[in-house]
Specification:
About 75% of the residues lie in helices and about 0% in strands. It is mostly helical and about 140 residues long. It has one domain. The longest helix is centred in the last third of the chain and has 40 residues.
Length: about 140
């Protein structure tokens, strides 16, 4: 019984370690694949919030991404399937995508905060109700 359990565990570990699919000849490099998946995430989010912009400009997000990166749908699908067959690597790719998206969100938020601050300063400067300093005023408190 003990040997059967050990043999079973050994077979399980060996089978988990083998590749489920062979590396495709036209595999998209990992870094490029991360960028493609990140851009697809952004475009699909934009598409779900305001699809009319895409329709008005006759843009199909997936085709746009493929043409931007010089790939075709078959190359993308085979590369995606290959990376998905390596769960740890695929998860690491999506963790990297999440980090990049969070960093970009921080940059956009900071740029918006600065823009809003500048616009507020311009409005205050041009306001007809702006305060002027008078040299003849004295504080009534001693």
């Amino acid at each position: 019984m003990k040997y059967a359990l050990i043999t079973g565990l050994a077979v399980l570990l060996i089978s988990c370690g083998e590749k489920l699919m062979e590396k495709p000849e036209d595999l998209i490099p990992k870094e490029k694949m991360i960028n493609i998946l990140k851009d697809m995430t952004i475009l699909n989010s934009a598409k779900s919030t305001n699809i009319s912009v895409f329709h008005d400009n006759k843009i199909e997000p997936t085709s746009f991404i493929f043409s931007e990166y010089g790939i075709d749908s078959l190359q993308f699908v085979t590369s995606d399937r290959y990376y998905a067959s390596l769960p740890n690597e695929y998860e690491a790719m999506y963790i990297e995508i999440e980090k990049q998206l969070e960093a970009e969100e921080k940059e956009v938020t900071e740029a918006k905060r600065i823009k809003d601050s500048v616009e507020l300063q311009v409005k205050l400067k041009n306001s007809p109700f702006k305060r002027t300093e008078s040299t003849n005023t004295k504080d009534s408190l001693p």
